[in-house]
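In full, the data:

***
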Amino acid sequence: MQDAGSFKRKIRTFYRSQGRDLPWRRTRDPYRILVSEIMLQQTQVDRVKSFYENFIKRFPDIKSLAHAKKSDVLRAWQGLGYNRRALSLRETARIVTEEYGGALPRERETLESFPGIGPYTAGAIRAFAFGEPEVFIETNIRRVFIHFFFSRRDEVGDHEILPLVEKTLDRKDPRAWYFALMDYGAMLGVAAEINPNRRSAHYVRQSKFIGSDREIRGKILRLVLARKKMTMDELVDAIPQPKDRIMKITVALSREGFLKKRSNMISL
């Protein structure tokens, strides 16, 4: 078993020399940290960086996002994927503006009540914006603890890792400690011969994007955002997929609030 003191020294030494300079790490503004954490869900850091900075320029505070048109938010989000996150973020901004005076609450239970915010995102916001010593886990943190503490084990559960996260947590500066853990984990994801997360009980191989419903959803949204409105026939002609599949996905997008579908016409 890895000694906790030696483990913490290794992580901190690495971070001092190779820590990443990321735009959302230069602020403690709860709104900006909220934006970054929603963007980082299921998306790699390098992809998020440029989107984050452009999004903040377009919507510099929570009130500007709360009052933004859905189409403007989706346009700013285009290319980042998982567009449902954009609508959830906008709805959270609206709730915070209307019910909390524009100040993002710091209480975990309240944060988890907002759209798109689960236990990890709530914990990350509390640690990075408010300096609260939260205990949470994400893919890079999981990778670090499996690498150091479970090197000979498969099927490692998060319930085994979380007590170690709590035991080693820097309660005076959880923000910098989590940054260090995440950066070490990101390094392991590239440098390790075999990704330690494959030994996690929660490891799931990501499904292929090309040809998936998720890819087609993105294409439909891009087309309608560009043209503002289209007929179903125009949509089917523009995307080389069976009409029934296009219809099914379009109906789902309409039901989820992305699009409006009236008879044969699709719009935002």
Notes: The mean pLDDT is 94. The longest helix spans residues 174-191. The radius of gyration is 21 Å.
